[in-house]
Specification:
mainly alpha; Serine Threonine Protein Phosphatase 5, Tetratricopeptide repeat; 67% helix; elongated
Length: 596
């Protein structure tokens, strides 16, 4: 009957769990009773003997036995058992003044076991038991008023009953008192009082309360944050088979709040919780199967668990399943299946799904292309605070993609993002300061943001700084500093920086001329499909002024320049091919295959 409310602070998937650094903790595990009784037969005989004795006493009119018989065997103590008989026995026991029987009659009429539901009769019997200080009856009637079960909601009456039952030691009522103080419903929010009542309930072994205490320690709510204590209480609840305790243990491994992290333990507990129907755990279990975390990767089981979580209303699972079909993660890409999943999640406020929808409408993936809808969903995601959506919206304003060009709006968003530490916005913000787009030109601020972006690994920023120092724009010309910035970008595989380094070595700007290094960096740029670098190498080999003339290599690089988009070399390529023998052309084709 008891369905104690449980505080739910444990966070869900979002595609990905939150991570946090945490000190290694050693968890005190509850002492296990090692006095194991071997062999079930004596225990089974004892159970049968107890049942038979109760049946005999109940049939002879013993009211207490009649009540205990139904209490101990709610599914029936023998074949052919029915609740109509139980109702008769409960009434017989109640007529003899048995308060447990009145309490159970309250249960029977509330739930309609063996009779029609009758909330007034239920309340009548609960109140008789309550008059005799029956704590469980107080607690159960409090639930009736608290959750408005077939009666008008009366939270104050519910609170008074929970308070009385809790003072009498009813662990369910104590859990509810904790929940009421925690939520601030009915009474002023008081975390210390909430913790007090959760602790009282947990001391009696109530797993709901244990999970709630774990939550409070995990969040540092009303108590000093302690991952060690959080894990201890979650583990105690999990040992009792509680789905939130299992989920809490799993989350603490997944989020690295517990050390050493053990993803196998996380997987096991997500699975145990998921099998009890907890949607957040089912979503995480799908993620674990999809990513191969703590278990072997199994996309079929991932889809199955995402679908089970969706059936229980998980928005995150809709988005995660949508991502599988969108990305083709071990399944065939299926935009038409992904789109409705993203749409349903987006309409319920999932920000990442809103961003996905924007891209799908923009590119016509799984739905007819619709720029207006693309911008609508992009703005929704941006307004919800999603940094990547805000960045894309600023880019749309800057480039006029689906919106009128609005440098001021773009600048404002890039500036806000940069000040929040969103590194991808620092480079475009620097360029806007440099060019005076959406703001007054300010080379000092431009260089400051370029340096910050470079520190975060934005290779375009390194390249831009290299070019600024190389050309002496806005700063004193400094080839040495320019080379350092260009080298960072070049070693990261940025073609324009590699091409510029080749020029430095070709012209001897930071040391003696080195044709060997010149060719090396031009070739590195060509590997990045840099058409200009390919054209320059073609010219070098065709002219033979700085290196030995080589018609075949000239044709090789001119052809690559043409393939990479430089149509100006078409006539040159045709001319060289006409001047070559078949064997020479075969050599060039072989070299092209190696480059491609």
């Amino acid at each position: 009957m008891k369905t104690g409310a449980i505080i739910l602070l444990l966070f869900g998937f979002a595609g990905q769990a939150k991570t946090a650094s945490a000190q290694a903790v050693e968890v005190e595990k509850p002492t296990q009773d090692m006095n194991v009784v071997v062999g079930p037969p004596p225990l089974e005989r004892a159970k049968r003997l107890k049942r038979d004795n109760l049946i005999e006493k109940a049939r002879s009119g013993d009211g207490r036995a009649q009540a205990d018989l139904v209490l101990d065997y709610p599914d029936g103590p023998y074949d052919g058992f029915d609740y109509k008989s139980a109702l008769k026995w409960f009434h017989a026991a109640a007529d003899r003044g048995d308060m447990d029987a009145h309490y159970n009659l309250g249960n029977v009429y509330q739930m309609g076991w063996g009779t029609e539901k009758d909330i007034q009769k239920s309340i009548h019997h609960y109140e008789i038991a309550i008059a005799a200080d029956h704590a469980e009856a107080m607690s159960e009637l409090a639930y009736v008023y608290y959750y408005a079960r077939m009666v008008d909601e009366d939270r104050e009456k519910a609170f008074d009953l929970f308070q009385r039952a809790a003072d009498f030691g009813d662990m369910y009522a104590q859990q509810m008192m904790g929940t009421i103080y925690y939520s601030g419903e009915i009474v002023r929010q008081n975390y210390a009082e909430a913790f007090h009542w959760f602790n009282k309930s947990a001391e009696q072994g109530y797993a709901d309360a244990m999970a709630s205490i774990g939550d409070m320690y995990l969040g540092g709510i009303g108590v000093t944050k302690s991952y060690k204590q959080a894990y201890f209480w979650f583990e105690r609840a999990a040992q009792k088979g509680h789905y939130l305790g299992q989920y809490g243990v799993a989350i603490m491994h997944e989020a690295q709040y517990y050390r050493p992290v053990n993803l196998s333990i996380a997987f096991k507990n997500f699975k145990l919780s998921a099998e009890q129907g907890y949607a957040d755990a089912q979503n995480y279990l799908g993620y674990y199967y999809a990513a191969g975390r703590g278990t072997r990767k199994n996309i079929s089981l991932a889809i199955e668990w995402f679908e089970r979580a969706i059936a229980r209303g998980s928005i995150h699972a809709k988005r995660n399943l949508g991502e599988i079909y969108y990305s083709g993660n071990d399944v065939e890409v299926d935009y038409e299946r992904a789109f409705p999943l993203f749409l349903e999640a987006a309409e319920k406020g999932d920000v990442r799904s809103q961003h996905y929808l924007s891209g799908m409408y923009h590119n016509g993936l799984g739905i007819e292309k619709d720029i207006d809808q693309a911008i609508f969903w992009l703005k929704k995601a941006a307004q919800s605070g999603d940094a990547s959506a805000q960045f894309d919206l600023a880019t749309a304003y800057h480039n006029g993609d689906g919106l009128e060009v609005n440098y001021s709006a773009a600048f404002k968003i890039f500036h806000e993002l940069a000040n929040r530490g969103v590194s991808i916005s620092q480079y475009p913000l620097a360029l806007m300061y440099l060019k005076g787009n959406g703001t007054e030109a300010n080379s000092t601020k431009a260089i400051m943001w370029l340096k910050r972006a470079a520190d975060y690994g934005t290779v375009e920023a390194d390249y831009s700084l290299g070019m600024i120092y190389s050309e002496g724009e806005h700063v004193s010309q400094d080839y040495k500093r320019a080379y350092e910035y260009l080298l960072y970008a070049a070693e990261a595989g940025y073609g324009p920086a590699q091409r510029r380094l080749a020029v430095f070595h070709e012209e001897g700007l930071v040391g003696p001329v080195s044709i060997e290094k010149t060719i090396y960096w031009y070739e590195q740029a060509v590997k990045q499909q840099d058409a200009l670098a390919a054209l320059i190498l073609g010219n070098l080999y065709a002219l033979g002024e700085k290196i030995e003339q080589d018609k075949k290599r000239a044709l090789l690089f001119y052809t690559l320049a043409l393939e990479y988009g430089d149509d100006s070399v078409q006539d040159v390529v045709n001319g060289l091919r006409n001047d070559m023998t078949d064997d020479e052309l075969k050599d060039v084709e072989r070299m092209l295959l190696e480059w491609r």
